[in-house]
Predict the 3D structure of the following.
Amino acid sequence: MTIDNTEGARAQIGVTGLAVMGSNIARNFARHGHTVALHNRSIAKTDALIEEHGSEGDFVRTETIEEFVAALQKPRRVLIMVKAGDPTDAVIEELASAMEPGDIIIDGGNALYTDTIRREASLRDRGLHFVGAGISGGEEGALNGPSIMPGGPKESYQALGPLLESIAAQVDGTPCCTHIGPDGSGHFVKMVHNGIEYADMQLIGEAYNLFRDALGYDADQVADVFTEWNAGDLESYLVEITAEVLRQKDAKTGKALVDVIVDAAEQKGTGRWTVKSALDLGVPVTGIAEAVFARALSGAREQRKAAVGLASGRLADKPADAAQFTEDIRQALYASKVVAYAQGFDQIAAGSAEYDWDLHPADLATIWRGGCIIRARFLNRIKDAYDENPKLPSLILAPYFRDAIETAIDSWRRVVSTATLLGIPVPAFASSLSYYDALRAERLPAALTQGQRDFFGAHTYERVDAEGKFHTLWSGDRSEVQA
Ligand code: NBP
């Protein structure tokens, strides 16, 4: 695409929506030498950004959408960083009316991917390129290098890719940004990324709970364990910040901060979206679902208050060998994490097939190695696994992860059984282990389910020894007929 350097139109990129994410991304662009046009509904945020950080690069201050659009080189590239939902639709409409065919509108907010599919189709009809870009890394990542997952028309990436790649996190010289696929695919993979983040956080929370309730560790002792783990296979942003959060002291009481925080987890919705989408696609994302439900249960404060003191039926003593149990928890965490990622990648494969996106799992593992919340050492292993076999039936079957789980399996079982006998909840550890056991089972009880379905609803079943569908005449002579 050609760049039209009409006088006045000098910005390479425009950012509208200058709350915490938008202003940090605008600064990131400017720090990388790009001229950035700034716009926000209320001018105060634009002025605050220029006053506090104007010296970091070349910014163009604008007040109206018309001024904003006029400040941009062609093809115009505008990144929207406003609240997801109706505000995003309102801003898209305003921009689309002021822009020209060939221009590119990027939504960097946390949009629901089906909204992105709708918006892309509607803007395509008007000759505009619409790019739904998942952006992960929070405020810090937005400023210093996020992981970026842009979807939308491939040709838009020619004009946009170099800009986005210049501000993304870099790992081993590779930017954590690549074109994901058509229409809603960028926001879809960002959604699943967030779902995996939920599962990862829940698993870490369960590990912490076991140290506290099974071994009697205080927050500092657990922080020491997480710091040590962060030097090994579990090295990741979430494990690293877990140690930092656990070590933080409350200025008011002198206690560990974690001990004065109310134990009711909130959620903004991307975990729930992931599970809803997985239900529609028929993909068991049990780890993510347990994490979403665990947050909901933690938030049911009245119900929990009423249930405190219910029978526990504690059937075990606390583990006698703390070092062994610590290693067991580490192994259980690793194995359950593999399951959570395997399930997330299954959902991505199913979404790719459903929407004909042709997504590449190795590319996703590559761009999640840096910048984003789930960045972790073992994403290199996931990338290797999918590089070797892009059609892996499950990540669990990759030789590296298969071996890792074989090493972890006894520890994993000990953790789940000990927690159960002690009455300590481990929904994500337990359901991940059950998923693994179900996946590897030669025979599942689903045969009985099929029999029941045929009994009450004549839904038919298949036989292990013959082709076709069959039905038993349950209310007749109980002979079998071919359906
Ligand atoms: P918010 O999600 O809090 O949105 C605030 C921005 O939206 C302000 O610039 C506000 O303008 C603008 N806005 C609203 Br609200 N309604 C508008 C409307 N009808 N028309 C025009 N502008 C409107 O900001 P954020 O936390 O910086 O997040 C921005 C996006 O990035 C969101 O979609 C979010 O989900 C996503 N995201 C956030 C994170 C994170 O860590 N926070 C990470 C990844 C993605 P005003 O100043 O005039 O009120």
Observations:
- The CA atoms of residues 472 and 480 lie 4 Å apart.
- The mean pLDDT is 96.
- The longest helix spans residues 322-355.
